[in-house]
Write a structure and sequence with these properties.
elongated; TadE-like protein; alpha+beta; membrane; transmembrane helix; transmembrane
């Protein structure tokens, strides 16, 4: 028999682990014993608790998920309005360009994301050779552009504008 002095650290750890396994196996109940049946009955009583917990947590969980979709949509609309105003201003500052061409470019970009009811306005309304700068304003009503719950954005609009100097050279 090995004494504690003659065992190495590894052997000591192995014998302690074997003792833990034996005690864990010895504490198991036989399949038909009273304590094994009690564990099964306890599990059945907890099944109703899971349903109640789900019923309490599910509405809040789905509200968070739907809010994520709605705010993502609003963010996409905001970035698209910024980009549409910028691109329309870029088209408008080129010599010989008209507001109709710039409006077409802005509407093309807004159509890609499905923005409904958007309006594109220019200042000045007519671009002439004497125009120094062009301001394009894109307005999107959020009433008709919500995906999940447009109730929270009712009556609000998203507005973005871009101002650029024209590329026209003045003749003296």
């Amino acid at each position: 028999m090995l004494t504690k002095d003659s065992m190495t650290n590894d052997e000591t750890r192995m014998t302690k682990a074997a003792g833990r396994r034996r005690s864990a196996l010895g504490s198991r109940s036989a399949p038909g014993s009273r304590s094994a049946l009690g564990r099964r009955w306890g599990r059945k009583r907890r099944m109703g608790a899971t349903t109640v917990e789900f019923a309490l947590v599910a509405p809040a969980f789905f509200l968070v998920i739907m809010s994520m979709f709605e705010f993502t949509r609003l963010n996409v609309l905001r970035h698209t309005a910024d980009n549409a105003a910028y691109e329309a201003a870029r088209v408008a500052i080129v010599p010989g360009a008209t507001t109709a061409q710039a409006r077409t470019e802005a509407n093309r970009l807004l159509t890609i994301v499905g923005a409904r009811g958007a309006s594109v306005n220019f200042n000045p309304g007519t671009i002439t050779p004497e125009t120094d700068s062009v301001t394009v304003t894109v307005t999107i009503p959020l009433d008709s552009n919500g995906w999940v719950v447009p109730r929270f954005t009712r009556g609000r609009t998203l507005t973005s504008s871009a101002t650029m100097r024209t590329e026209r050279v003045r003749s003296r």
